Structures are given as structure tokens and as C-alpha cells.
Amino acid sequence: MRSFLRYLRQRGQIATDLAGAVPAIAYWSLSGLPKFLPAEQVKQVLASCDRTTSVGKRNYAILLLLARLGLRAGEIVALALDDIDWENGDILVRGKGQRLARLPLPSDVGEALVEYLRDVRPAGWTRRLFLRIRAPLRGLANSVSVDCIVARALKRAGLAPPLKGAHLLRHSLATDLLRQGASLAEIGQLLRHSQPNTTQIYAKVDIEALRGIAVAWPAGAP
After folding, report:
1. Quick one: which of 3, 20, 30, 83 has the most CB atoms within 10 Å?
2. Which is catalytic among the residues 57, 68, 121, 167?
3. What's the confidence (pLDDT) of residue 213?
4. Is 68 a catalytic residue?
5. Whole-angstrom Cα distance, residue 152 to residue 159?
6. What's the pTM value of the predicted model, to 2 decimals?
7. What confidence tens digit (pLDDT) does each residue in 200-212 have?
8. Looking at residue 86, what is its pLDDT?
9. What is the secondary structure of 173-214 as a DSSP string?
């Protein structure tokens, strides 16, 4: 509407610029709900990987990192061989804004990475952790590559959620942790949120806690 009004003013069909009179659409911060999968469906996604194949072993390790540590797609792409500290059992994650964080490496994630490194990952000049399966043997191109891995796993598992990228597993982890009793501060630390209010959106999916603060509907009110 604003563009149309500016067009009319430019053509001289109206004398006053009315574009400023058109109100902006209200956008409320944190107004939506996070899209997530229940824990059982996350297991279905992981189980959809054929771990007898090279691509299945690689993708299983990637999906576990997303599901257990809540990594972003770009953080998966940026992982390097030197980021894994096998002696101390942790992994270095390069997050947004060049922030670095060390996260503990769960045993199942470590086992999947060992299987990938031992049986699948070819030797090469690059230190990137996850490589293409087919030539040219280089690191994953970008975040879209990881999103596609998640989308294909969802399809194999027979799931069709509205959100199909890597962030779906990040949201699912946060939601599951909240329902298991983790605090928002703990979840924010794991997900490496720079602002506490970024984590607050997950409070909306804690139905039992919301029931405790909900105001009763006034009986008989008109």
C-alpha cells in the first residue's frame, strides 16, 4: 500500500504523500512457538540412517551432534578435526559472532564420530571434519547441505513437520530438556545464547508450568 501511494504521489495523481499514514504491521518479539519434535520422533530420525553405508555413518554423526548438543548448521560445517579433544572428552564449537565454546562430548556422539573417522572419512588436505562422500573430497559447502541432510532424514522417518532444517533438532533438544526439568539458564548455556530472552521462547512449551500461572476464566462473565 505504501508503495502504491508513493507511486501515485510520484505520478502527480495525489498532492500529499500518504505513505506515512499507513500503519506498520505489528511484530511482537517472541510471539511464535518453537517448532520441535517429541523425543520419540527424534529417535526415529536418528534410526532412519543406514549405518551400513558411508553416507549413513556420516549423516548419523551429524544428526547426533544436532540432536544432542543443539549445534547450528553452520557450526557443523565449520567443525575441524582439531576441534575434538579426545583426551578431555569435549568439542570446540565456533558459534555466531566468532564466539568459541567447548561442550562436553556425549559418549554416543563420540562413538559415532569415531566410526565415521575410522571407516568413512578419507584422508585429504583439508582439516574440516565432515567431508563430501563423493569427489571432490572437500568440506560440506554450507548450512544448506546440513539442512538437506535433516530434511532427507525426516522424509525417511515418515515425518513432515513445518520446519525441516537443522534448527528443528536444536528446538527439539531445548524443549525436551525443559520438560525434563532443566532451567532456562541451563538451556541457554548449552545453546550458547548471547541474550537470555532468546531462551525465553521455550517457556511457552512448558504447559504444566504455564497452567500454574494462568488466570482462571471468570465464570459467568458476559
Report:
1. 83
2. 167
3. 47
4. no
5. 10
6. 0.77
7. 666 666 655 556 5
8. 95
9. HHHHHHHTT--HHHHHHHHT-SSHHHHGGGGGG-HHHHHHHP
Q: Is 125 helix (H, G, I), strand (E, B) or coil?
A: coil
Q: Which of 2, 43, 96, 99 is catalytic?
A: 96
Q: Which domains does the chain have, with CATH numbers?
A: 1-32 (no CATH), 39-196 (1.10.443.10)
- Which pLDDT score is estimated for 80? 96
Residues comprising the chain, all counted: 222
Catalytic residue among 58, 72, 171, 192: 72
118 is catalytic: no
The residue annotated as part of the active site, out of 51, 164, 170, 192, is 170
Is residue 193 annotated as part of the catalytic site, yes or no? yes
* Active-site residue flag, 170: yes
Task: Name the percent of the chain in helix, strand, coil, to the closest 5.
Answer: 50, 5, 40
Arithmetic mean of pLDDT, 111-130:
92
Specify the pLDDT at position 33. 62
User: Is 171 a catalytic site residue?
Assistant: no
User: Is 60 designated active site?
Assistant: no
The full DSSP string for 140-173 is --SHHHHHHHHHHHHHHTT---S--STHHHHHHH
